[in-house]
Write a structure and sequence with these properties.
mainly beta, four-stranded antiparallel sheet
Length: 111
Amino acid sequence: QVQLVESGGGSVQAGGALRLSCAASGSPFTVAGVGWHREAPGKQRELVAVITRTGNARYSDSVKGRFTISRDNAKNTVYLQMNSLQPEDTAVYYCNHQNFWGKGTQVTVSS
């Protein structure tokens, strides 16, 4: 059974940074890609960043240049480094792997 746990969320001021973590059990991330998604109040859940099975990264236009997704295979953990955060980045961030979801971690950015 795949279990995903997100952590690292919090409250920061605009321009600040956070690093989110997605720790997995039951499936190594090398089996398939991992995606970070976010859901803001009243909005659809959207894909933010993906790291493929082979380690290649892709980003949505809204975060490109500000966010970096990476993977630590030894720890079976995927990270999302978020720099230059903006209020519109405020959302619950979720990790997805093999169609399994974590419970999310809240990110709040104040202006």
